[in-house]
């Protein structure tokens, strides 16, 4: 799981993105298996969108592989009232943006790709730190011998 500090940074990135692109109505970062990492999605159930994003991601990955188009980068869906765009965010996350129909799609892609890259860097770095094996602890050196005649208390191991 992503540590709380990085989750806060991901949320900050989502909020900055929404401030830069006023026609975004929501932004969500999720793991590739559909767990919400952070979201700024007023009026939208983030868990449901994250689960649907994971399902769409699975199909998109299969489509890119089956057609020889390389790894998944992004997905754009246009509905009657706007867009849903999903962008790869590193190796284990995805960014999903909800946008109004009037949005400039080129700007949506530009900002979504940049934010996806930044979020991917944050999430991948956090996961790398948490998955790194613990270093082997060396035993502490024995405490120095007490001087003759002193009554030092025995030291508790830490």
Mean pLDDT: 87
Number of strands: 5
The chain-level structural class is alpha+beta
How many helices does DSSP assign? 3
Unreliably modeled segments: 150-156
Helix content: 40-55%
Topology readout:
Layout (H helix, E strand, L loop, with lengths): L3 H17 L3 E8 L4 E5 L5 H21 L7 E6 L2 E8 L3 E8 L4 H27 L27
Antiparallel strand pairs: 1-2, 1-5, 3-4, 4-5
Helix pairs in contact: 1-3
Could you write a compact summary of the structure shown?
By secondary structure, this protein is an alpha+beta fold. The protein is 41% helix and 22% strand.
Would you mind describing this structure in some detail?
The chain is α+β, with helices and mostly antiparallel strands and 158 residues long. It contains three helices and five strands, in the order αββαβββα. The protein has helices at residues 4-20, 46-66, 105-131, and strands at residues 24-31, 36-40, 74-79, 82-89, 93-100. Strands 2-1-5-4-3 form a five-stranded antiparallel β-sheet. A hairpin with a 3-residue loop joins strand 4 and strand 5 (93-100). The longest helix is centred in the last third of the chain and has 27 residues, at 105-131. The radius of gyration is 23 Å and the shape is globular. The protein starts with a helix and ends in a 27-residue tail after the last helix.
Keywords, separated by commas or semicolons:
158 residues, alpha+beta, five-stranded antiparallel β-sheet, 41% helix, disordered C terminus
